[in-house]
Amino acid sequence: MKNIFLFIIVFTLDSCLIAQNIGDFISVEPSVQSSNFTIPSTHIFQKIIEEGDILLQGGTLPGNTDFTGYVPINGSSENGYISINSELTPGSVSILDINYNSTTKLWEITDSKAIDFSGVAGSSKNCSGTVTSWNTIISCEEITSNSDINNDDRNDLGWCIEIDPASKKVIDKRWALGNFEHENITVHSNERTIYEGADSNPGYLYKFVADTAQDLSSGNLFVYKGSKNGSGNWIPINNKTPSEQNSTLSQSASVGATAFNGIEDVEIGPDGLIYFAVKGENKVYRFQDSDPITGITVHKMETYVGDASYNIQHTNGTSTVVWAYGNDNLAFDGEGNLWVLQDGGNNYIWVVENGHTQGNPKVKIFGNTPLGCEPTGITFSPDFRFLFMSIMHPNSSNNDTSQTDASGNLISFDKDISIIIALNENLGGTLSDTNFNLVEKLSIYPNPSNGKYNINLGKIMSDINVEIFNLHGQLILREKLSVLNKFTLDLSSEASGIYFIKIKSDNNLLGINKLIKK
Questions:
Q1: Where do runs of H (alpha helix) occur along 153-286?
Q2: Would you say residue 2 lies in a domain?
Q3: The organism sits in which domain of life (predicted)?
């Protein structure tokens, strides 16, 4: 009991020193891309699915994985759907049923299916998107087409598509939001107002106000005209008939709308301001809408971050880093920090801390992504414990090293992959700690092994209870041993994979360790 009491004290003290929120970390050291995925030591990742993995209702996951939207079931942060876009031609969206196992602290897939777009004339280049507050997915087509194969008088491509992740069926293409190269949209809490941008050059900033909450089939569309450093106005765009909906870009040009070089992502901050990334201008702008529903003016348009160099403090010192080209996907965490995924430069995962200004910068680097890739996604669980994202088109020939994820699997970043990131204590959990020993000299070797492990307790003990669990937390073996100081465990008959051993003596816990069977 003395050892256990000591452990509780040490654990309590240590827990005061570790990260408490997903945005609490020390920057990784800035560097060019390598074959590894580098994140702070306070965090860990778990593979969800990767290119070529089987979908349970047929087919496999395509490549070029982009938006990775977590849709909670009944507001849950541990039970929901993951919608994964594939930026390909033809396009693809895959929906996964996913839940968190509180025993193993790992995520599991229970169903998966590719969406059928045949009823809406197909889809292509499914890029980013959003999760609506009424728990649907919006997948955005980052390509336009003048074809009309279903004779509905509308262009086949260049729309936002609403999907029900529960039924895994398309609701409809949302024609009233306009036709252009869509990257994503963001939905105001009033469930009527949408902000979006055209990922083209020239690209334009839009506001849509739905006639009815949670119904994006009709409403009024506006385009921004004004200063990039000051104020401006929302100018109405005709969007009632198919021909009007097809001509969003030409209408925007004709009213003299402000041109941006590729609007990638638009998000509403916890401060109520609207933030949007412009890839070709190396900036994230923000502004204040005079009123989300009735307002026709924009105030305080300004550069929030980017187009500058920032001093990044990391464990080895301070480095001056250029923000560089390609700020892309955006998401806010629970502390109001803005996460920015970079498509270009060194493809960093940036975090702009709450309170940042260009005059008083607060910028960190969370991740160095593998060779050849760009980080994409990104969404959080409602409680902000879990970050969901994808890694698109990593180098298939040079990323030949492996990393161990939270489930103990060896991951090589040589194909598109979707992952979950969390603090160490929230992913992989107590059972997956590789060296949770209360007895200092307890050792297990070899590990990994072909199934036979030598267990050395360090001294003679009595009334020893040994329990073996599989990766899902299910008990697969229990043994009771008499007085001894070492023994051999044989898992030769079990499948290759990750197991956990829990050892007690006289009903006192000695340790919980991970076993890797080749």
A1: 242-246, 248-254
A2: no
A3: Bacteria
d(C-alpha 371, C-alpha 49), whole Å: 19
Residue 41's nearest CA partner among 23, 31, 54, 28 is: 28
Residue 10, helix vs strand vs coil:
helix
Same domain assignment for residues 261 and 365 = yes
| Tokens 């039970």, located at residue | 79
Query: Structural domain tally of the chain?
Result: 2
Same domain (yes/no): 457, 324: no
d(CA 178, CA 221): 8
Calpha distance 140→241 (Å, rounded): 21
Q: How far apart are CA 67 and CA 82, in angstroms?
A: 10
Work out the mean pLDDT of the chain and round it to a whole number: 92
Distance set, CA 38 to CA 32, 186, 385, 387 (Å): 11, 29, 19, 15
How many residues does this entry show for the chain? 518
Q: What pLDDT is stored for residue 500 in this prediction? A: 83
Amino acid letter for position 152: D
280 with 413, same domain? yes
Q: Which of 405, 431, 457 is the last residue of a domain?
A: 431
pLDDT digits (tens, 9 = 90+) for 19-44: 689 999 999 999 999 998 999 988 99
Decide if 351 contacts 335 (C-beta within 8 A).
no
Question: Could you give the C-alpha distances from 430 to 76, 511, 515, in angstroms and in order?
Answer: 22, 10, 14
Residue for token pair 């945005």: 23
Whether the per-residue pLDDT at 352 is higher than 60: the answer is yes
418 contacts 390 by C-beta, under 8 angstroms? yes
Q: What is the CATH number of the domain that holds 409?
A: 2.120.10.30
CA dist., res. 42 & res. 38, Å (int): 12
